[in-house]
Amino acid sequence: MRILVANVNTTASMTDSIAAQARSVAAPGTEIIGITPRFGAESCEGNFESYLAAVAVMDAIASYPEPFDAVIQAGYGEHGREGLQELLNVPVVDITEAAASTAMFLGYKYSVVTTLDRAVPLIEDRLKLAGLDARCASVRASGMAVLELEEDPERAVESIVRESELAVSQDRAEVIVLGCGGMAGLNDKVRERTGVPVVDGVAAAVTIAESLVRLGLSTSKVRTYAPPRPKKVTGWPITGGAA
């Protein structure tokens, strides 16, 4: 089984970290391929960058030259999952939905701890769109920019832990969700400090994608995610075909 894990930004080192986290939970025989878009922002922290990333990820996935069995979009709260589902005939799993749905198996309410405050409305909207907001206790910002997660990991952990503790004590959350692909691998440290289950979206998405492939299931094509209608699209960057 081959799963493509698409970073939503162009920072290759972050792609490597995300792919490493994915490989750490993948089953034997699952090949994880990290994908970095060829254009876009170095980090995604707002609507403009998110919409740009949506196009960039579709370009990167549709241009991938080898067969693959599933795709993971590794951007928390980012746009584009629906477009990938139209383009592809394999399962598409977004880490936002994977993390939230997994958290609901572990406790009554979950909280998301993300990067900057400006990302909070985007995440709230994506959870609402996916129908996963009813059991979300809160979405909290750590105050750390995406790139700072790599530049100052000790400070990042402290900021994430602080907000996680407040989510548990003030918002009554029973599970913490790490709300950024760049936080991959921090779940153990946050769990040790908070005492509650901590869900990393990349890890959750890998196990869900593997399950869908093994069950022989993929996106329904009868209506919402039917393939795009054939038409002239001027200036579209994608040159490859869909899987």
UniProtKB/TrEMBL annotation:
UniProt-listed InterPro entries: Asp/Glu/hydantoin_racemase, Hydantoin_racemase-like, Iso_Racemase_Enz_sf
Pfam families associated with the record: Asp_Glu_race (PF01177)
Top-rank lineage group of the source organism: Bacteria
Coiled-coil annotated spans: none
Family to which this protein belongs: Belongs to the HyuE racemase family.
UniProt protein name: Asp/Glu/hydantoin racemase
